[in-house]
Here is the input.
Amino acid sequence: MMNIVCKAMAETLWRGVRFAAVAGVLMVMSGVPARTGEVPGAVALGGRLYDNWILELRYKPPQVRHPLYPAGGKLTGTPAETWRCTTCHGWDYKGKDGAYGKTSDRYTGIAGLWALRGTDPAKIAAVLNAPAHGYDDIFYDDQINALAAFVSQGQVEMNDSIDPATGQARGDKTTQVEFYMTVCSNCHGANGTETRDIPPVGFLARHSPYETLHKLLVGHPGTKMPAIGVLGQARITDLLAFLQTLPERADDTAPPVRDVLAAVVRGGRLYDNWILETHATAPKGFHPAYPATQTTGVQAEMTWRCGGCHGWDYRGTEGQARAITPSVIAKSLRAGLPVEDVLTILGDSNHRYNGILNARDQFDLATFINKGLVDLDSFIDGAVAKGDPVRYKHYYEAICAPCHGFDGRKITNAPPLGHMTRQNPWHAVHMVLNGHPDELMPPMRVLEKQIVIDLVAHLQTLPADR
Here is the structure.
């Protein structure tokens, strides 16, 4: 198989998502799913180190061949590649007995790691630290332990997902369209051809399916791509099957199919902050329709943002969120209002968004109001999330922690997650569902409702100070 680096391939996923439009709410509704695929953050980190520790740790590439790599191997001319675990042990973890067997141009004759599944990680760490592998002088203890944890706990039988004879994914290519269109397309585009520094996603998924599957499970080294192994291999197999339907060439003229949920989550980001999402310049002064008698203590820019007037719970002056957003003056939004009616309102003499938001922006925002409003009182009791803060902690560790850190304080130009989610839980839920404007944060609207509630409950347990 070709060794092709796939970047920012995917974020979150559920198989067989069931969308229910109830009172205008478009969201996955079901019972709490089984915790199939619980992947601690250390295992995901170990998987990225297994892929390319040089990228993950931002280390200077070694200039000499790894001592265990065969002198006659095809990668002797690129010594840094010989230090990657995947180079010898393969993307399927089976080395000479797997996809890197004798018929492969990547054959080394080196055994895989498959037999080490379930082995005490301390014993694996000892092998990594031994002179033969030589990682004792390169990795810190926590990094060695993470790599050992992946070898022990993180390997999966990739041939359960991929037909080794054809490279075809064994999944259902139809179940994860919504996931790709809401999450992956933020970076890769609807056709998977818009990330300039890698080949099209369709090409990668067809020609390097084992590598692609590995990155879906644990993320891509050195990037913000989250690990989605927490969601279970079967679900990710379906996503891989869909990726293999995407174009192989960047010049493919096939029109993209944009799912309605993609419009909903982008509309949610526009509702949050269309100025950021569209890279616009904030209008000067207060919105002309904002009452001059009520501007005390109100930031002018907030009067131009939907959430500023209608609140983060969408209930305006009738909602609980009004207490922490002084700019809220408007009435509650009406879930299910037809898109055409919302478009008329956006352009009327009161709102005045014609000429400010383009046609797609207005359509996405209208679609969010039509189908994306949720009853946040079912998520939050007072200011406290109604969920179990422990049940889906491993989702946070695998999906959120690569950017936010395990304590929620890694992003230094934003308040700690613990502070933000306690102070304004309604806004927190809104961003968990729809993503952060103009950021790569994946929208979690594709997850079951209870998982989102539990995630926010966990966020509220994180430290609130620096």
